[in-house]
Design goal:
alpha+beta, Arc Repressor Mutant, subunit A, three-stranded mixed β-sheet, 5 helices, 7 strands
């Protein structure tokens, strides 16, 4: 992460080193507020705007991936820079699985002589572990006379 910052002409400050460490130590997604809270542990005077601006800039140079979760809002995580791939993202636990299929490999007929310079492809769903937990809860509910409806809340029969 620091190498890409330096190649992009960024000054490598202690705060940016800390920001890089936060993402290298965190396997999942972080909200801007979570990053800000961690940065404030070391730099109490850092502003939320400074942290957010750096997150956006790191995303623009490809060091961070940003994803918008319906329930959790905008979140960031360190980019996987070793190969081209896309993501399956669990909306329940936020686990991310990579897969190699790329829809951009298909012949696209784009209007207006449009030139693609970058793309992202994310599929949102529920991972196997979360589905098993839901299935277990439904089985337990059925045996006790409760039913789970689309809201995910049990209702008496």
């Amino acid at each position: 992460m620091l190498d890409i910052m330096a190649r992009s002409g960024w000054r490598i400050t202690d705060q940016r080193r800390t920001l890089a460490r936060i993402f290298s130590d965190t396997p999942g997604y972080l909200t801007p507020k979570e990053v800000y809270d961690q940065m404030r542990n070391t730099y109490p005077g850092v502003s939320f705007d400074t942290v957010y601006r750096n997150l956006r800039m790191l995303s623009e140079v490809g060091v961070l991936e940003q994803v918008y979760f319906q329930e959790g809002g905008l979140k960031f995580k360190a980019s996987c820079l070793h190969r081209h791939h896309h993501h399956l993202i669990c909306v329940n636990c936020e686990k991310t699985l990579t897969f190699d299929y790329c829809p951009m490999d298909q012949q696209l007929k784009l209007p207006g002589n449009f030139q693609i310079i970058n793309h992202r492809f994310e599929i949102y769903g529920i991972c196997e572990e979360c589905r098993q937990q839901v299935d277990a809860k439904e089985s337990e509910a059925e045996s006790s006379g409760w039913e789970f409806h689309e809201s995910g809340k049990p209702q008496g029969s």
